[in-house]
Each structure stands twice: as C-alpha cells, then as structure tokens.
Amino acid sequence: MEIPHSYGNGFFSLVLWLIYTHLLSKIPYGLGVKLRGVVLKKLLNHIGVGTHVSTGVRILYPQGITLGDNVGIPRNVTLDGRGGVEIGNDTIIGFESIILTATHISKDKDTPIRKQGMFCAPVKIGRNVWTGARVIILPGLNIGDGAIIAANSVVDKDIPANTVYGGVPAHFIRKR
Fold first, then answer.
1. How many domains does the chain have?
2. Distance CA 175, CA 153 (A)
C-alpha cells in the first residue's frame, strides 16, 4: 500500500484517503460516483460540480489536485498531485491514463538515481480537452484548451490549444 507523505489536514484527511483508496474507489456506478464525490471534496484542493471519478482511480497527494466542472475521470486513471494537477472544465481523461507531476533526477551517472532526488512540476490541462485511453502526461506540461491526445500517447512537451497530437512521443497530427 502506498501512503502519500502529506494528507492535507492531518489525521482526518489520512482516514478519508484510506477510506477512498480501499473502499470507495471500488464501488461502481452511481452510488460509487456520489460517495467518491463527497469524500474527494474533502481531500482534493478542489472538485467542480458535475465531475465524475470512476472506479479504480488512484490518487496520490490529493491536496495538489484541482478538477474543474464536468470533468470525467474514468476507471484506473492515476493522478499524481505532488507537483500539482489542474484539469479544466468539460475535460475527459481516457481510461488507464497516467498524469505524472514528479520524476527521478538522473543527471549524475556516478550517483545512483535513487539518491539524486525527485523533480516535481505542475501539469495543467485546459478546458474541453480529450485524452484517449492510456495516455501518459509527464511533469511540467501544459495542454491547451480544446486539445485532443490520441490513445497510447506519451506527452513530453506542451500541446497547443485546438490541436490533435498522438504517438510516442506525442507529435502534431492536425488542427481541430
């Protein structure tokens, strides 16, 4: 079990996080969505009206996560709030996607990577964005309003508004 280092408001938030992780994240459909919404209002920095978080969503460092109105987070998505995640209104994240805000530093080849620390940077996803299934978004990136990212893409650079990107690494496909 992975317990985050910070729980926001202390013991109460830790208990809520454990309830979410081991119970509420597994309850399907309408009841599960409603119960998760109630608990996530206490855990996340912000969760907007009409936002749905499905089963199996893994949330790390919840206090660093801001979800706008009418956001769809389907099953088995991972949200890493260490560096901060902001997802704009009316955005749909594809199932099993991973949004990372931290990565290992690996600049010194003579020092073990695990001893070089971590780099954290925020991810900002605009309004009306759609990411396909299994998209990976790396730390420190901005995805513009209205962008579409194809399934199975790895996003390693900023994505301009109203564009379609896809691939590994994600590259420009066309304008919307």
1. 1
2. 17
Across all residues in the chain, what is the average pLDDT?
90
pTM, 2 dp: 0.86
Instruction: Tell me if 101 is assigned to some domain.
Output: yes
Distance in angstroms (rounded) separating the CA atoms of residues 57 and 80: 11
pLDDT value at residue 113:
95
User: Quick one: which of 73, 77, 10 has its CA closest to 43?
Assistant: 10
> What is the spatial distance between Cα 87 and Cα 92, in angstroms, rounded to a whole number?
9
Domain containing residue 164: CATH number: 2.160.10.10
Range of the domain at 117: 11-175
The reply to whether 68 falls in a domain is: yes
- State the number of CA atoms in the 13 A half-sphere of 114 facing the CB: 0
Residue 3 included in any domain: no
Rounded CA-CA distance 76/134 in Å is 9
Share of residues in the chain with pLDDT > 70 (%): 94
Q: How confident is the model at residue 142 (pLDDT cuts 50, 70, 90)?
A: very high
Active-site hit among 22, 46, 104, 171: 104
Residue 6 lies in a domain: no
Asked about 22 being catalytic, the answer comes back as no
